[in-house]
């Protein structure tokens, strides 16, 4: 299977990053979202990132122009009739994802792979919303996508070997390191990361230390590039809560119970960097 054209559904933080790395690697990319403004916002982030690459001497003006030319703005899912793969990076919600996959299944050509960037939802269940479960796969990028090397590739129960191999090759073309995992809640990345973040929130909730102290311990003591509370703000507290709930529901174990303080912040609309306030405040 040869991939030439890509559609990325969702032009937010993750979707725009995925579109950027695909366009830079030479793929034609439809960047799709519900409204023009959302697509424009994603394209602006990409352009800003590419400008920085040029300023740093890592990319020429011509390479930047080529990458931008590879981007096609889309607000119509019917554009999926022109692509070899769709990478879905929409809202982290099973009903939303199932609806998108069912619609794409009716539009995209038979050979088209339908991939999801979901950070924790079961690929097998998303695949069941389509008539091509063997062509459905998880392609989980890390944030910020242009910087982070990992792509966690998740095999659903029915994912075909050829589809897996195609995605593995594509991840390498994007300059990423693919790692294969099976379809269990949170996969590997968030099954390990989120309970750590949740535990950091519990230590704050129980008054063990200040937020700055908790972050400092992990940064200086364990060499993490960001403390867990800063990282939670960076990921989005709503996303962290959603993933904890997925783990809690999926395994039924109390060790995955989301911290009440995390719930409270999300209810307050303090979702982290994207809303200007989470554990810390942002301009
Ligand atoms: N987009 C593109 N590039 C970015 C960026 C962004 N949002 N943020 C930072 N960068 C680039 C910077 O331009 C800089 O590039 P140069 O080396 O070319 O200058 C480089 O990253 C380093 O940035 P900074 O010097 O500003 O800051 P830093 O050294 O603190 O690095 C960081 C920033 C890479 C984000 C680093 O703090 C880090 O690695 N943090 C942890 C990130 C992490 O754990 N990500 C996974 C989150 S979990 C996830 O994504 C999975 C999930 O499902 C929830």
TrEMBL record:
Pfam families found in the cross-reference section: 3HCDH, 3HCDH_N
Domain 3-hydroxyacyl-CoA dehydrogenase NAD binding: 5-183
Domain 3-hydroxyacyl-CoA dehydrogenase C-terminal per the UniProt entry, residue ranges: 186-282
Pathway(s) it belongs to: Lipid metabolism; butanoate metabolism
Annotated keywords: Oxidoreductase
Gene Ontology molecular functions: 3-hydroxybutyryl-CoA dehydrogenase activity
EC number: 1.1.1.157
UniProt-listed Gene3D superfamilies: N-(1-d-carboxylethyl)-l-norvaline Dehydrogenase, domain 2, NAD(P)-binding Rossmann-like Domain
UniProt keyword Isomerase, yes or no: no
Stored InterPro entries: 3-OHacyl-CoA_DH, 3-OHacyl-CoA_DH_CS, 3-OHacyl-CoA_DH_NAD-bd, 3HC_DH_C, 6-PGluconate_DH-like_C_sf, 6PGD_dom2, NAD(P)-bd_dom_sf
Similarity section: Belongs to the 3-hydroxyacyl-CoA dehydrogenase family.
The protein, known as: 3-hydroxybutyryl-CoA dehydrogenase
């Amino acid at each position: 299977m040869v991939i030439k054209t890509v559609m990325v559904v969702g032009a937010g933080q993750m979707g725009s990053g995925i579109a950027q790395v695909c366009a830079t690697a030479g793929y034609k990319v439809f960047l799709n979202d519900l409204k023009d403004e959302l697509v424009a916002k994603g394209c602006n982030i990409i352009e800003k990132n590419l400008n920085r690459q040029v300023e740093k001497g890592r990319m020429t003006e011509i390479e930047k122009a080529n990458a931008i030319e590879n981007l096609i703005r889309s607000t119509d899912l019917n554009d999926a009739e022109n692509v070899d793969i769709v990478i879905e990076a929409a809202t982290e919600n099973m009903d939303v994802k199932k609806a998108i996959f069912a619609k794409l299944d009716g539009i995209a050509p038979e050979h088209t792979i339908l991939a999801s960037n979901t950070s924790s939802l079961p690929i097998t269940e998303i695949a069941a919303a389509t008539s091509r479960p063997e062509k459905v796969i998880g392609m989980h990028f890390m944030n910020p996508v242009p910087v982070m090397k990992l792509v966690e590739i998740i095999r659903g129960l029915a994912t075909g070997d050829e589809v897996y191999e195609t995605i593995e090759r594509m991840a390498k073309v994007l300059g990423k390191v693919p790692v294969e995992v099976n379809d269990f809640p949170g996969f590997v990345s968030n099954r390990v990361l989120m309970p750590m973040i949740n535990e950091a929130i519990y230590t704050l909730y129980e008054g063990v230390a200040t937020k700055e102290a908790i972050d400092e311990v992990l940064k200086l003591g364990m060499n993490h590039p960001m403390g867990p509370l800063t990282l939670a703000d960076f990921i989005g507290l709503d996303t962290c809560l959603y993933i904890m709930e997925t783990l809690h529901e999926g395994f039924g174990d109390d060790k995955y119970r989301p911290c009440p303080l995390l719930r409270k912040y999300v209810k307050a609309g303090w979702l982290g960097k994207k809303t200007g306030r989470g554990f810390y405040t942002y301009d």
